[in-house]
Design a protein that fits this description.
Layout: H1 3-17, E1 38-44, H2 50-65, E2 74-80, H3 85-98, E3 102-106, H4 108-117, E4 123-128, E5 147-151, H5 157-168, E6 174-179, H6 184-199, E7 203-208, H7 212-223, E8 228-232, H8 236-240, H9 242-251, E9 256-258, H10 261-265, E10 270-274, H11 276-291, E11 307-312, H12 313-318, H13 325-328, E12 333-335
Parallel strand pairs: 1-2, 1-3, 3-4, 4-5, 6-7, 6-8, 8-9, 9-10, 11-12
Antiparallel strand pairs: 10-11
Length: 336
Amino acid sequence: MRRREFLSLLGSFLGSFFGGLPLAAPIKSYAQSSAAMRRVAVLMPYADDPIAEARLDLFRQSLRLRGWIDGSNIKIDYYFANSDLGRMRSYAKTVAAAAPAAIFAASPPVVTALKRETGTIPIVFTNITDPVGVGLVQSLSHPGGNITGFGAYEFSIAGKWVELLKQIAPSTTHIAVVKMPQHSTNAKLFQAAQPTAKSLQIELTEANVRSAKDIDEAVTSAAAIPGGGLLILPNPATTDYHDLIVRLAAQHKLPAMYPYRDLAAGGGLVSYGPNVSEDYKSAAIYIDRILRGERPADLPVQAPAKFELVVNLKTAKALGLSLSPSLLARVDEVIE
């Protein structure tokens, strides 16, 4: 007898024996029939690299804590778009056509593509700046549709990134802002950084990137200007090529500000932003609540509870930078 047929018969027997038990109860309490299997799609804008996998492992762990075990009572389908906008749109169509019970997604281009394809399948997002402004939800407290999740930043954080980079590397007079074209929040973050840059007499230039070649050219160009530095905006391309960016910044001895702790831990000079990993765990909580019958429209969009300033001391020393005691006192984490 084939395994699938055996499981189906076993599920029928257990279903009649345990009739009436709640669908979403932890599987350790009773065996699930094949009919009880729920499908969840995960659509990420970047590659399946170690940072992405670590975050997704936290997502899976959080689901397991709530009784959802991949391959037992839930089936998780993963799609990695590798910063390719065309692939994001194609995957969005594929996911919507499969009609999973819920979708977990990150980044504005991905969630926007999903929104075009479905107005009914529940979507939980993470790492999106201004979800109201980009048209994903009606309001933070009352999303009002099939989409909810966890926000990333207010646009004003861009000015803070410029200010902190100047404090850590005082000789910085020119910052190349590494951003992704056609990324709605990147464009607004760039504009939001301008007033602070002007007040600090720093010139900002746009460095639009999609590929490794683009990033190489952007960093090389920034290094050719005295007093150059980098501001890495959050987007699929800079997430996909984070190792390359960190390596090139070190090679050209450029001070760089990153949006995620993972990148400072991986050799970047400094990062400032929310703990994205925590949002992956929280997203699993929302997925659990949706699978148990709650509606995205009734689950408020959550803002980050805390922003962390992380400095890589080894990288600072390699760049010849000395951090002032007052700055070190504000740092949440120093990586030796």
